[in-house]
Write a structure and sequence with these properties.
The complex is a heterodimer of chains A (139) and B (198). Chain A has 139 residues and is mainly beta. Chain A is built from 1 helix and 7 strands. Chain A has a 4-stranded antiparallel beta sheet, with no helix packed on it. In chain A, strands 3-4-7 form a 3-stranded antiparallel beta sheet, with no helix packed on it. Chain B has 198 residues and is mostly beta strands. About 4% of the residues of chain B have low confidence. The chains are: A mainly beta (139), B mainly beta (198). The interface between A and B is medium-sized, with 34 and 18 residues. Strand 6 of chain A pairs parallel with strand 16 of chain B, so a sheet runs across the interface.
Chain lengths: 139, 198
């Protein structure tokens, strides 16, 4: 059981099929404990080993402020920061998924270690939206 | 009264980390025969702050005592013969509210503190009544994920077609009419071999 940061293989296939429509679809981010198994083979959001805690609702937060553009020869997608306010959460990773397309997996994030909030804000600060750092990139 | 030390090593020895700015606020001995209004200390978080609220007394009543955004807070010896309002300490790392007293009543004593908290609430007394004594600790976290990426590849293609056999041939017959210049091998030359001595 582990969380490995990855762009799911199914997501790559679905890009060819035109499944995901960034800018239109609703994308969400769910948090998972260290007992979860997530990686390139993840195809869809599931509640197994999802975080349970004060201030957290199953399914996670809806991502906003989406940016889809390119820089040089790299196309990329980024989102705005998201916060679970006044929450008590222990999370090891996250799954971004497309709530508009049967919760299909988009990206698996590994936090590297358990991240803990206790009656405080749990904030995921997205990387800079550029060709080098953006959350999802295709070069 | 407040003291501020700014710059490399300008603070007293053993006070905070080397080179850090230091602000010290002492609010001591605020007294009144009648009533004292609210006592409020609000400090920013960019420097190391030590706040001492001590010996705030009144024969009458004291309003709320509030300290916000400090690193080390010591709220002690707040007493009133009459009533004492709420004592509220927020966003502190080390908090020592102690010796809060009122002959009448003491309002709520609340400590809301951040990460790595030492909160000691002791000696909260009242001849009358004491409100709620609450210690709330909280811890916030910010996660900085890196992105995921994929590299696209375009494979090599094979192009084939039928051979064009309609073009005009440009082959020629081999010219076999040229004069030959070959000669017979001369096999009459004198041999010069000798027998090898035994």
């Amino acid at each position: 059981m582990a969380i490995t940061q990855a762009m799911p293989t199914s997501f790559k296939v679905e890009l060819f099929g035109g499944v995901h429509v960034f800018g239109t679809d609703t994308f969400k981010i769910a948090l998972y404990t260290s007992t979860a198994t997530l990686g390139a083979g993840t195809t869809v959001y599931a509640t197994t080993n999802e975080v349970v805690g004060t201030g957290y609702t199953a399914g996670g937060n809806t991502l906003t402020a989406e940016v889809t553009t390119s820089g040089g020869t790299t196309a990329f997608v980024d989102f705005g920061d998201t916060t679970w306010v006044s929450s008590t959460i222990t999370a090891r990773g996250a799954l971004i998924y497309n709530a508009s397309k049967s919760n299909k997996a988009v990206a698996v994030l590994d936090f590297g270690a358990d991240k803990v909030s206790s009656s405080g804000d749990f904030v995921i600060q997205m990387p800079t939206a550029d060709a080098t750092n953006a959350l999802i990139r295709i070069a | 009264m407040a003291y501020q030390y700014t710059g490399w090593g300008s603070g007293p020895w053993s006070r905070s980390a080397w080179g850090s700015d230091t602000v010290e606020v002492d609010l001591v001995g605020v007294e009144a025969t009648g009533a004292i209004g609210d006592v409020t200390v609000v400090i920013g978080t960019s420097v190391n702050v030590t706040v001492y609220v001590d010996g705030v007394e009144a024969v009458g009543a004291i309003g709320d005592v509030t300290v916000v955004n400090s690193t080390t807070i010591s709220v002690t010896g707040i007493s009133a013969t009459g009533e004492l309002g709420n004592v509220y300490v927020s966003l502190a790392t080390i908090v020592y509210p102690s010796g809060v007293e009122g002959v009448g009543s003491v309002g709520n004593v609340t400590v809301v503190a951040g990460i790595r908290v030492v909160a000691a609430v002791t000696g909260v007394d009242a001849v009358g009544s004491i409100g709620n004594v609450t210690v709330i600790t909280f811890r916030s976290v910010t996660v900085l994920p890196s992105g995921v990426y994929a590299v696209g590849y375009i494979g090599q293609v094979q192009i084939w077609s039928f051979i064009n056999d309609n073009q005009t041939p440009n082959w020629q017959n081999v010219n076999d009419t040229e004069v030959s210049n070959w000669q017979a091998v001369n096999d009459i030359q004198t041999s010069n071999w000798q027998q090898v001595a035994a």
